[in-house]
Amino acid sequence: MNASELVANLNQQGVHLWVDNDKLNIRSPKGVITPEIQETLIAKKSEILAFVREMDVATKSAYIPLTQGLSLHTIGCLIGGFSDKSSEDYQPPIIDAKVMAQRLIVTFKPLPPTYKKQEVLKFRQELEKILKNYGVKILPWEEATQEFAYDISIPVINQKKTFKLRGVKAAVNAVIDVENPPSLLRNLGILVAENFYKFYSQVILKNRTIPVVKIAKLSSWAEEHAAKYVEDPTNTQVIIITEIDNNFINPNISYKQKINIGLKTLVRTFSEIVIGVSNDKISILNMNLSDSIFSKNEMKEFVLKSLIPKVFVPITPLLLSQFELGKYNPQQSSYAANLVKLGQQLASTGLFPSGFKLDDVIKRKSHRDIVNVIVNGRTGVSYGFVAYAEPPQYVGATEITTNEWENLLPIEGFSNDEIRRNENNRRYIRIKIGEEYLFKQIPDIWLVSSRSGANKTDLNLTNDILRIGLKERLFLELPEGIQPDVVDIKPSYDIYVMLAITLAAALYTPELIKNGAPIVHFHGYPAFEWFTNNEWCVGVNNPSVPCGTYESGVFNFLGISSLASNTMKTIDLVSLIEPDHGTNFIASNIDYLVERLKTGCTEGQIELGGKHFASLKSNLSKSQV
């Protein structure tokens, strides 16, 4: 067991290790540090000291200002709506993939005894080695699982029966398995199990919602896949390794066809991530449905930049409980009307393929019920978003002098060097543009956005558009007359990204957003040659964190701020790349953005899927965010 595995194992048991004056200090619950562990700690002391120092530096670095003048802690607080919480209650975002790796716990499900696919076996072995080298803790299956017991009531005979099964502990971030198609006999068992679950759900539960783990146990006893063994699928992702799907990676197949292939693969394997392997290629698939392809020679980069971020930051929707709820009248909002116009004008581009209903894709009721819990009751999923940022709202001076800054008051949870407030509780922030420090008011941010699952190119002004706010916390305003517990009207997964782009533009590129600004996201990329004067592109080398996380918001915030710091030129349009996901665009003018996107699609320089990503990566500087 190396130092990272040992420290992770001890942390999991409540042990805290830290370095003080080159001495290793330990605080532990009674009985955890056995004589054997103590001997190991002594034998590996120098290695553990080095590892703990590295972790301390990584944690403290979140509070050290970046070149843009702000720390990750501050950026995360601002865009996540955590401004009313103290620093003790808040965990700053992690955007370094190597630090992510050192905080992950993964297990490999034992291989079926008859499994013989050599490329998959070779890849699996190499993957485990690379994960370990990056500091991921690999738990043996026996250590990662424990026995769970659950009771069910059997109708007719009116008896309770206890079932026991080994399951992966909730603390494990991912379980890695191989695809092993079921036999005819097992398919028969699955049919019996699913019919039993339907009956039990309707007759005994009367369609009440129950925990994910109980659904899985009731419906999966005849199956042999990794998801069956997961205690809590909301905490532990299932990763399947299988042979590469040549249709899915075929550049001549349309992205809409690839969506169908990808969805069927995820449903068939009942997993969050599917890795396809051949003798020379690697593909990775998750609910973002990108068609990213890597060469086998890039395996270390694939693991670090693509796989590890997806495991560390799973795709999760924002809950309504995270917002302060309110109402608004979309008929009286010119920005909501602009949003409808934006979607309609982009219909001809084909950049927003129709979404899907979970009922249409996931045929098994047990699987639908599990996914329904995980995605917070959403009945469908779509790809991309359209949003329209309102002009930032200020009260008082938008910018102050150094002397005025010195007289402001501190704010709990923030560095006094970064954010302060005046007597009217308006917050001011110290940012760096070029070599100059400026003191700007943090405005109230509002934008209108299409609801999750809406047809982006045919939005209904009455019930498809939400109004999102960011002040000292998150706000969500629903259209008047809409009841969220009756109508499936939930915010997009990408809310943090929308807010981060809007806030960063207000602070660093105010001319871009002073009259409001359209923001668009789709699952594709522009070619490098598409860009013209005053159009900028950043983010191509970022770790591929999924949507729905404030880590993705942080990367977009840093992208905008880095442009202002480095170019000091006119900015008409910004393309913010999210590897393995797609592209965000913000522009100063709706007509300009629509015209540019239409031109790119007509000339073949903008397409869905990953076709143009390689041209961006080969042409853009690695020094960019």
- Tell me the number of helical segments per DSSP (H or I, 4 or more residues long): 20
- The computed structural class is alpha+beta
CATH first level of the domain at 320-393 and 443-619: which class? Alpha Beta
Biggest sheet, spatial arrangement of strands: 12-23-22-21-15-24-28-27-26
Helix content: 25-40%
Strand content: 15-25%
- CATH fold assignment of the domain at 320-393 and 443-619: L-fuculose-1-phosphate Aldolase
Report the biggest beta sheet as strand number plus sense, adding barrel if it closes. Answer: 9 strands, mixed
Using DSSP, what is the number of strands?
A: 29
Shape, per Cα inertia axes: globular
CATH architecture classification of the domain at 320-393 and 443-619: 3-Layer(aba) Sandwich
Spell out the CATH superfamily of the domain at 320-393 and 443-619: Class II aldolase/adducin N-terminal domain
Q: What is the rounded Rg?
A: 25 Å
Mean pLDDT: 83
**Uncertain ranges:** 621-625
Distance between the termini: 35 Å
Index terms:
nine-stranded mixed sheet, seven-stranded mixed sheet, L-fuculose-1-phosphate Aldolase, disordered C terminus, 20 helices, 625 residues, alpha+beta
What does this structure look like?
Among the domains are: 3-92, no CATH class; 320-393 and 443-619, Class II aldolase/adducin N-terminal domain (L-fuculose-1-phosphate Aldolase, 3-Layer(aba) Sandwich). By secondary structure, it is an alpha+beta fold. The two termini are 35 Å apart. Helix 1 crosses helix 3, helix 4 (72-80) packs across helix 18 (550-566) and helix 9 runs antiparallel to helix 14. The strands form 7 sheets. Strands 12-23-22-21-15-24-28-27-26 form a 9-stranded mixed sheet, with helices on both faces. Strands 4-3-7-8-9-10-11 form a 7-stranded mixed sheet, sandwiched between helices. A 5-stranded antiparallel sheet has the order 16-20-19-18-17. A hairpin with a 5-residue loop joins strand 18 and strand 19.
